[in-house]
Design a protein that fits this description.
heterodimer; A: alpha/beta; FAD/NAD(P)-binding domain; Immunoglobulin-like; 3 domains; 5-stranded parallel β-sheet; 10 helices; 28 strands; globular; B: alpha+beta; CPE0013-like fold; 2 domains; 5-stranded mixed β-sheet; 2 helices; 10 strands; 30% strand; elongated
């Protein structure tokens, strides 16, 4: 088997968009490795609508959004290897994957990490109590229900008010389960207003803010949880403890970029995004390894994931044309920014899109871009929320003037 | 006076009350005209697009995701789910195919949202 020039790891929204864009540019020496038996990734289990409004000006379900890309890519006769799990990725881009026929080694020049994310689990937040059956991440319960047709419980409590949890509250209710309530540790919800209304209010499911689960009870199956209000420091107030009888707990407590292969390859990681550090071409600290989608940082709209995949394709096309390497100017986040991405930009770049998130909800805020020590752009912002990724387009006229460092600062006045 | 409606048009999330005693109806608490229109629609005829899955035979997976071709009355979500639970379809299907015409009445069809090949065919 000859070695492909480019290997894309992951056939979900990021990987499909990247592959399609490469084919459209006439670059066909590409292999897509997908661990599942179907393309589409996590979109396949997201059967609700709301996908593609920005990109297609139409509201698709997750599977249908993926299908658009699959239908477009098939005429190129892509080399897609299904059921292929990458076991090792080395800094020299040697990778080893396994499938039904055995283990295989590839030596590509370019690797695209489009691996998606992992859900935070009970182990990540350490909920005390019994090690009961019936504690699921919201995404696993979603997969069981929407792909395999299994309802994982009848009387459900959901921890975390992120959108996956809210969507599952509605989905399980419609499937015949009783969702007793949703608890959120923070004093505000992390979900879209639309989902709070259509997934909880529509079915009279209560949302308990500043509340968490302090214990899970039951052997072998969950039979109850202890629910506690928390104080301003997020510490449970023991007097508020109450026992709630349920047979299932769903955890919707956040996603983390899938880092395993990136760490093996020795990529520099950003403790804020929990994904690899990248430049404006979305290339990581290892030459020839790129990252996009939820493997890079967590998105709330698939439309942006697809755009990132395409951005990587564009960067690859440019790198195959010219070897010229400009120096990179570091970009740092300051103030109430949770993160900024990318973390550097090429000197002389023609355009730059910055992605950021905030650390807390803010009614009014100001973003200041500081280039080479001077404030070059001030942007007033309203209604910023940690659950919404924000984007800033930096005009070319500004970019061309700055050569040493950028910082982005968020403050509340 | 009805209970307040949380507006979903923008992230602001206005709490809007609709006075249905007057003619025309009067809204309070909305910051914009789109909010007023939403609150009146929610009061007069609240509707939701239903997404779910139905049993499929002959495909690689046992469930096919589906959507109603238009929003259906909110009060009919559970009864429509009940109808879906009694439905079985056969592969192949294509994303966008109408599976059952006029499934929810009012000309609202049941539409497949995933392409599933017939994997059992010779």
């Amino acid at each position: 088997m000859t070695d492909p020039k480019i290997v894309i790891i992951g056939g979900g929204s990021a990987g499909l968009a990247c592959a399609l864009a490469l084919y459209q540019k006439g670059i066909s020496d590409v292999v897509i490795l997908e661990k599942e038996d179907e393309l589409g990734g996590i979109l396949n289990q997201c059967i609700h609508t709301g996908f593609g409004l920005t990109r297609f000006k139409q509201e698709y379900t997750g599977p249908h959004y993926a299908q658009r890309f699959i239908d477009d890519i098939m005429p190129y006769h892509p080399d897609i290897r299904l059921g292929a799990t990458v076991l090792e990725l080395h800094p020299d881009k040697t990778l080893i994957y396994s499938d039904r026929t055995g283990c295989h080694t590839l030596h590509p020049q370019i690797v695209v990490l489009a691996l998606g994310a992992r859900e935070r689990t009970r182990g990540n937040i350490g909920i005390p109590g019994d090690r009961s059956i019936g504690v699921w991440t919201a995404g696993s319960a979603q997969r069981y229900l929407n792909i395999d047709g299994y309802l994982v419980g009848r009387k459900v409590f959901i921890l975390g008010s992120g959108d996956i949890g809210l969507i599952m509250a509605r989905r399980m209710t419609l499937s015949g389960a009783t969702v007793v309530g949703v608890a959120e540790l923070l004093p505000y919800s992390n979900g879209l207003t639309r989902n709070l209304v259509q997934c909880l209010d529509d079915f009279n499911i209560p949302l308990h803010l500043s509340t968490t689960i302090t214990a899970i009870h039951g052997k072998p199956r969950v039979n109850a949880i202890t629910l506690c209000t928390v104080d301003a420091n997020r510490r449970p107030i023991p007097e508020t403890a109450q026992r709630v009888e349920v047979d299932t707990v769903l955890l919707s407590i956040g996603l983390l970029p899938d880092q395993v292969l990136g760490e093996q390859a020795g990529l520099l990681m950003d403790p804020r995004t929990r994904g690899p550090v990248v430049d404006d071409h979305l290339m990581t600290s290892v030459d020839g390894i790129y990252a996009c989608g939820n493997a890079l940082h967590i998105h709330d709209l698939v439309d942006w994931v697809s755009l990132e995949g395409e951005k990587v394709a564009q960067a690859i096309a440019e790198s195959l044309q010219s070897e010229a390497k400009a120096t990179r100017i570091p970009i740092t986040a300051k103030g109430k920014l949770a993160y900024i991405l990318p973390q550097s930009v090429h000197d002389g770049a023609s355009h730059l899109t910055l992605n950021y998130r905030v650390t807390q909800p803010m009614e009014k805020a100001v973003i200041r871009l500081v280039g080479d020590g001077e404030v070059v752009l001030t942007l007033p912002k309203t209604r910023l929320h940690p659950s919404e990724m924000q984007r800033i387009e930096i005009p070319h006229a500004l970019l061309s003037k700055i050569h040493y460092n950028w910082s982005v600062e968020l403050s509340d006045e | 006076m009805n209970k307040p409606i949380t507006c979903i048009i923008c992230p602001k999330g206005c709490q809007i009350t609709v006075n249905a005693e007057t003619s025309p109806w009067i809204t309070e608490g909305n910051a914009c005209a789109r909010g007023a229109a939403y609150a009146i629609q929610e009061t007069a005829d609240p509707r939701r697009t239903l997404t779910a899955t139905v049993a499929i035979l002959g495909a690689a997976i046992p469930r096919c995701p589906v959507v109603t071709s238009a929003p259906i009355p909110k009060g009919e979500l559970l009864s429509t789910m009940d109808k879906l639970n009694h439905l079985t379809i056969h592969a192949p299907v294509n994303a966008g195919d109408v599976l059952v015409e006029n499934f929810a009445g009012e000309g609202i069809h049941l539409v497949a949202t995933r392409t599933l090949e017939n994997t059992h065919a010779a």
